[in-house]
Amino acid sequence: MAIARLAAATTASALAQRLREAIDGGHWQPGDLLRQEQIAAEYGVSRIPVREALAQLQNEGLLDVAHYRGARVSRPQAQEIDELFDLRLMVEGDLLARALGQHDQRSLRELKRLQDALEDADDRLGWIAGDIGFHEALYGPARRLRSLALFRQLRAPIDRFSAQALSPGTRKQGWADEHRQLIATVAAKDAAAAQEILRNHLQATRAVVLAACSSQGES
Amino acid sequence: MAIARLAAATTASALAQRLREAIDGGHWQPGDLLRQEQIAAEYGVSRIPVREALAQLQNEGLLDVAHYRGARVSRPQAQEIDELFDLRLMVEGDLLARALGQHDQRSLRELKRLQDALEDADDRLGWIAGDIGFHEALYGPARRLRSLALFRQLRAPIDRFSAQALSPGTRKQGWADEHRQLIATVAAKDAAAAQEILRNHLQATRAVVLAACSSQGES
DNA sequence: CATGGGATAATTGTATCCAAAAATAGCGGG
DNA sequence: CCCGCTATTTTTGGATACAATTATCCCATG
Fold first, then answer.
1. Mean pLDDT score of chain B, rounded to an integer?
2. B41 touches strand D (CB under 7 A)
3. CB of B69 within 8 Å of any CB in chain A?
4. Chain centroid to CA B80
5. In A, which residues are within 8 Å of B80 by CB distance?
6. What are phi and psi of B71, to 5 degrees?
7. Cβ(B81)–Cβ(B214) under 8 Å?
């Protein structure tokens, strides 16, 4: 089982991770049909774990699976993306407000460290993973496990567009700036300012993602 | 396939529904261990769809599944329930605000009809299903599919406690009253009042659910 | 008598095989 | 030539069979 080597409890979850990366990395495009047999052969496993991985990705919102008709990479509508960002604004705003009072020297240092590491990374998937890690560290002190899980869930269908949106470089600068401003306002315990930065951060990302989404929408 | 008769595309989803009802109905208690073989035998299917159903219920938050160690009915902490209600307040408040302007004669009549049917039902599971239906009709005109799905998701781990909380009868009265007040304020397009009623409705439910949750917490 | 080790049984994860459904190709009629 | 229908192929869903892991029991030992 060559695939299971890469740190995963079960073959299905390892596969799910691989497929997630493949979608985020643009290896599979929206609308593409994922054949169970093909994936099974490609990774050297049977179709059972493949099916479980596909089911997992389905309810992460990355795939649309129709009965007896295969799994396709989902093609989110702009309206849907928009809605997801509205939800993120609510959930992440709440998390940030609750985390603000819980941050301390150590958590702030950790945030800075993550941000430094993040800016050094040079591949898109690394940025995405790093961005998730940064925001988790930012919201973590709120100790709201369910909200944090929801944060991840709301990102999942979006991140593949972020990945290609960040590549130009210009947006990457603003993105990093906003992260550093977030750290600063959190360190200063300035709730209003932090909320404002987060709002701007998400609004800017929303615009970029919507552009990326609609630009590849025609096929 | 005796089970598939009940309106479901796939055996796994039919099983998932049955198991959900079994948990909501109190047939399975928090901490109970669900054996794949046993469930498979009970419903006359193989373990494959059972596994898929269990995976489904896992990410609905009804089960805790550990590798090679079986699936247990989850035992939510009071803190977790509390968090879920906070999220519901945000999401449902937003949905209600957006739906308010979209309601018309027909949708309001539908709401009244659902509420009437709801109050006639005499079994707990029927109340829950009816309550979900009512709120979906209430939020539906907002046309926010993702938020509506999130609404369902946030309820899932809670509803089994609501089911047993509603049985006394006293709370059922307040619950019905609040529903009727919601209809009235929506009909009057009074956003502030509707928000206030919804808030009270959820807060009251929260208290009852927390009581039910902590009372059966010891075992 | 408590405790740790090892064989045994029970249970989950995966592979292989069969059945049901859908996509596709080939054929006849308009 | 195009359209609709049927037969074949392909693909998915489910059942059975096997491998890997964990839990249980039993006994030896301090």
1. 91
2. no
3. no
4. 16
5. 145-146
6. -115, 130
7. no
Task: Report the CATH fold assignment for B78-215.
Answer: Four Helix Bundle (Hemerythrin (Met), subunit A) (1.20.120)
- Alpha-carbon separation of residue B118 from A143, B125, B149, B174 (angstroms): 37, 11, 21, 14
Residue intervals of chain A classified under CATH 1.20.120.530 are 78-215
pLDDT of residue A4: 37
B52 touches chain A (CB under 8 A): yes
Task: Answer yes or no: are the C-beta atoms of B121 and B127 closer than 8 Å.
Answer: yes
**CB hemisphere CA count around A64 (13 angstroms):** 11
Q: Per residue in A77-130, pLDDT tens?
A: 999 999 999 999 999 999 999 999 999 999 999 999 999 998 888 788 888 999
Task: From the CA of B5 to the C1' of C29: give the distance in Å.
Answer: 40
Name which of B40, B41, B39 is nearest B22 in CA terms.
B39
In Å, what is the CA distance from B202 to each residue of A92, A97, A140, B135?
Answer: 21, 22, 26, 12
Q: Does A129 touch chain B (CB under 8 A)?
A: no
Q: How far is the CA of A69 from the C1' of C23 (A)?
A: 9
Q: Distance between CA B18 and CA B24 in Å, rounded?
A: 10
pLDDT at A122: 79
Closest residue of chain A to B148, computed from CA coordinates: A83
Question: What single-letter amino acid sits at B95?
Answer: L
CATH 1.10.10.10 in chain A: give the residue spans: 3-73
CATH of the domain spanning B3-73: 1.10.10.10
Residue B169 confidence (pLDDT) above 70: no
Flag residues of chain A having pLDDT under 50. Answer: 1-6, 218-219
Q: Is the pLDDT of residue B152 over 80?
A: yes
Model pLDDT, residue B98: 98
